[in-house]
Amino acid sequence: MLYDIWTVFWRDWLVLKRRIGRFILSRMVSPILYLVAFGWGLGRNIQVNQGSYLDFIVPGIIALNSMNISFNSVGSPLNMSRVYHKTLEEYLIAPISSMSFVIGKVASGALRGLLSSLIIILLAFTFGAHALITIWFAIALVLNCLVFASMGLVAAMVMNTHEDMANFNTYVLLPMSFLCATFFIPDHLPTVLRWLIEFLPLTHASHALRAIVSGGETPVFSLFIMAAYITAFCGIGVWLMEKVRE
Amino acid sequence: MIHIENFSKKFGDRTAVDNLSLKIAKGEIFGLLGPNGAGKTTTIRVLTMLTRPTAGKIVIDGCEASHQEQHIKSVIGVVPQHFNLDSDLTPWENLELHGRLHHMVPQVRNQRIEELLKFVELEDRAHEMVQKFSGGMKRRLMIARALLHQPKVLFLDEPTVGLDPQVRRRLWDLIRHLKNEGLTVLLTTHYIEEAENLCQRVAIMEKGRLIAIDTPMELCQRLGSYAVEWADEEGTKTKFFADRNEASAFAATLVTTTTLRQTNLEDAFVELTGRKVAG
Ligand SMILES: Nc1ncnc2c1ncn2[C@@H]1O[C@H](COP(=O)(O)OP(=O)(O)OP(=O)(O)O)[C@@H](O)[C@H]1O
Ligand SMILES: [Mg+2]
Questions:
Q1: Which residues of chain A are within 8 Å of residue B98 when distances are taken between CB atoms?
Q2: Cα dihedral sign for B231, B235, B241, B246?
Q3: CB-side neighbour CA atoms (13 Å) of A231
Q4: What is the pLDDT of residues B115-143, one digit of tens each?
Q5: d(CA B17, CA B14)
Q6: Residue (of B221, B220, B203) closest to B212 by Cα position
Q7: Nearest-10 Cα torsion for B226, B231, B234, B239
Q8: Alpha helices in chain B (DSSP H)
Q9: Residue B232, C-beta contacts closer than 8 angstroms, at least 6 positions apart
């Protein structure tokens, strides 16, 4: 089983290694834009919780970016491989369990999310952020990557066209990027909306990352929620892998 | 080796395969023929565990599909009808992925990859991207992939579409050779002469139902061993005779150009399915 997970991961790693230069460059673009627009441009004169806006927003950007990368690096290739290229069949025909496939894919998506977060952290330092990177920060980040990699897997198994995948991005990920405590604290929003936002995984990621960076208490509850999401999505993923044979 | 009992597959209201029962012995090359949409690919997909049957029992290599799927998967090799190579990888990497998925020991794996790449004449392009390959090259690579882990049963869904004549002949020779070593082969094809050449037995399917199953020879003799073919205003016509003299006597009564020949599997196929398949 471990070997099968490694095989699935190995294939993605091979592809990533071939494109690592391009991967890194393209991953720098959107965080730089965010940092310039919100950190330098807008954020100069804003104070949040007695800190600079830049320091406030870096954890948000990391949460949002690792979400996007993890989701898309599993979601869109897997969707293409299932619907158009049919390369998923190679795994379905092989004597490996659905669980190994799911774990391998999610791990490789999370790895990409982590790499791109690392890029942002380095960039943020050059922009003058004072982030505090601890082991808990790493744990929260890994959890966030896993949440969205597994969500990407579920979406890829459910959506039947590439266009639906893009719509999923627009209707689910994009609203989350703006609402889930990434750019502001959602305390002043209407109660219903706040409840809804509290429910979304990205909110917990930004909360957790921010709490850790600012040296507050370890956000155990948020980490727990993220772990629950991962378990649920992976479980659904395994179930969908079985169902795809119907 | 392959044992199918009362197998049906429905997609919604459409019945793709209807109550099919079939036994294929070890070391047999078995051909599955039928017009487009007959249910050949669906049958193969079910036998290769890609789709679950709606009803029926399937046993391969002594294992029942519903409980011992992993064992079956480890002893079968599959060449699907459509291309499903990983185009982000090179041929070598595609094969290596397959070998790893089948838990091959690295040393054996590398040796087999080399052998098979040589066999399908792709060894000098082993490290180019598959994306840039021609259709025939991709199909050759898929055949190499299906054989890599030394399966006991090989499923070939139209394996020779788009192959040049030399490679096709070599593939036939290889299939015969593997059969002698005890490999069981189930293949589908629209090239009837291929089935006639290669298969000990063929089954003809139409609209999901099995309409005939026999040796190619028997199927031909059922019609009559001799065929007279002629053309009139309505198109080509064929009539079958058991006896050569009768056939030539009939041919003599026709005023147009006629051909008198031995009945072939294609005649049987056309008679049974009621229309000509496009090659
Ligand atoms: N995934 C699917 N969903 C719905 N219907 C399907 C599906 N796959 C196959 N069918 C239907 O099942 C029937 C049999 O198709 P199948 O692909 O098995 O035919 P075939 O004998 O392989 O034909 P061909 O010679 O064209 O390859 C067709 O009517 C087809 O439309
Ligand atoms: Mg077919």
A1: 90, 94
A2: negative
A3: 6
A4: 999 988 899 999 999 999 998 899 999 99
A5: 9
A6: B203
A7: -10
A8: 40-47, 69-75, 91-101, 106-119, 135-148, 165-180, 192-198, 216-223, 244-252, 265-273
A9: B256
**Cβ contacts of A97 on chain B, cutoff 8 Å:** 70
Q: Which of A3, A93, A97 sits opposite B78 (nearest CB)?
A: A93
Q: How far is CA B60 from the centre of its chain?
A: 17
Helix or strand or coil: residue B55?
A: strand
The residue written with tokens 């399937």 in the block is: B58
Q: Which of B80, B100, B103 sits opposite A10 (nearest CB)?
A: B100
Q: What's the token pair of residue A213?
A: 């960076």
Determine contact, residues B223/B55, Cβ cutoff 8 Å. Answer: no
Distance CA A193, CA A205 (A): 18
Domain ranges of chain B: 2-215, 219-273
**How distant is the Cα of B19 from the closest Cα of chain A, in angstroms?**
18
Q: What is the ipTM of this complex?
A: 0.89
Question: Quick one: tokens of A177?
Answer: 């990027």
Q: Are B155 and B79 in contact (CB under 8 A)?
A: yes
Tokens at residue B44, please? Answer: 């193969």
Distance CA B89, CA A214 (A): 44
Confidence of residue B277 (pLDDT cuts 50, 70, 90): very low
Q: Which residues contact A136 (CB under 8 A, 6 or more apart)?
A: A212, A218
Place of tokens 């025909």: A93
Structure tokens at B103: 């838990």
- 3-state SS assignment for residue A82: helix
CA distance A125 to A43: 16
Question: Strand B153-157 vs strand B2-11: parallel, antiparallel, or unpaired?
Answer: unpaired
Q: pTM (2 decimals)?
A: 0.89
**How many domains is chain A partitioned into structurally?**
1
Sign (positive or negative) of CA dihedral B116, B117, B118, B121: positive
Of all residues in chain A, the percent with pLDDT exceeding 90 is: 48
Nearest to B203 by CA among B15, B27, B29: B29
Closest-CA distance, A236 to chain B, in angstroms, reads 19
Cα A114 from Cα A118, distance rounded (Å): 6
Give dist(CA B87, CA A81) in Å, integer: 10
Cβ <8 Å between A89 and B93: no
Among candidate residues B134, B137, B132, B133, the one with its CA nearest the CA of residue B121: B137
How far apart are the C-alpha atoms of A234 and A57, rounded to whole Å? Answer: 30
CB contact under 8 A, B87 and A95: no
- Assigned architecture for domain B2-215: 3-Layer(aba) Sandwich (3.40)
How high is the pLDDT of residue B133? 92
A28 CB-contact burial (10 Å; exposed 0-12 / middle 13-18 / buried 19+)? middle
SS3 content of chain B, % helix, strand, coil (to 5): 40, 30, 35
